[in-house]
Amino acid sequence: MVLWHLEIAFFIRWYAEFHVNSWNICLTIIEHGHFHHLFPNGRICSITAKNQTYIPTVYMELCIPPDEKGNFKMPENHLHIWPRGQFMMIALPNQDKSWTVTLFMPQEIFDSLDTPSKLIDFFEIHYRDTIPLIGKEKLVKDFFATKPSPMISVKCSPYHVGSTCVIMGDASHAIVPFYGQGMNAGLEDCFIFNQLLDKHDNDLGKVLPEFSQFRNPDAEAICDLAMYNYIEMRDLVNHLSFRLRKKLDDGLHWLLPKRWVPLYTSVTFSRMRYHHCIQNKKWQDEVVSNAVRTIGGLGILAATYCLYTSWMPLKEVLKDYESLLGNMVGPV
After folding, report:
1. DSSP state at residue 85
2. Which one of 98, 145, 154, 260 has the lowest number of neighbouring Cβ atoms within 10 Å?
3. How far apart are CA 285 and CA 291, in angstroms?
């Protein structure tokens, strides 16, 4: 294994020799780094990024230290999220009882926090409960000691050149971190590639094209899913409609575990292909939408019937009232 360092990207080059018809075939696998437009020997120059997007959100890592006794300051068996609509903050526990706190915001908000007083005022408004956890002095020190980092989402195709080179992992589908599927997607690349090697008896001329064709829809799907989950984490979780839908999904999954699988469950806890997860979610959305429209229509019909049936006795009362009023007034 040879480690190449090209600009800021690292490429891992693995040589695997397969004995096919007495020929030794050298296969270059580039698994890490999304800047794959150039490689020292120029063998992957035909692979170009179809869609390389720097999202309008950047991130910065802060830290919640352990308490005086060396223990966690928050319940440790949870992912803590502070959703704030257009931005958010999350905290993940570490083995030393500290928390890695990641602040995700548009660059312009970071730029506006250019003094310690502005930073503290911002946290007082949006993350007041975290100030005593981090500590004011540590918050100011850590915030101004670093700069926000960008995030990129990459979709490209194909993943191979001839029968001698293939890209996997972040090199082929760099994703934003909001679904926690980056490493899993890379490992799944290897798993599928190994299955294709067995299927085609190590014939790379067949393996590599099929790998590109088979894997691309799922790689692009997980890029889209990761972007969607950011919207869900920073904004949708605050909406009552979202929480009701989640309870509905959980209930239907409990009743029909094989038939109704929620999106997050299908992505994270199943072998369902990523683009099938999206198709499954669209099917569920249609079912729920149709059910809501049907229930709404029936509700309108029921309300109309109730009004109609209650109006009939009211008409008789009005007739009696008019008759009584006429008797009281008498003829003019």
Report:
1. S
2. 145
3. 10
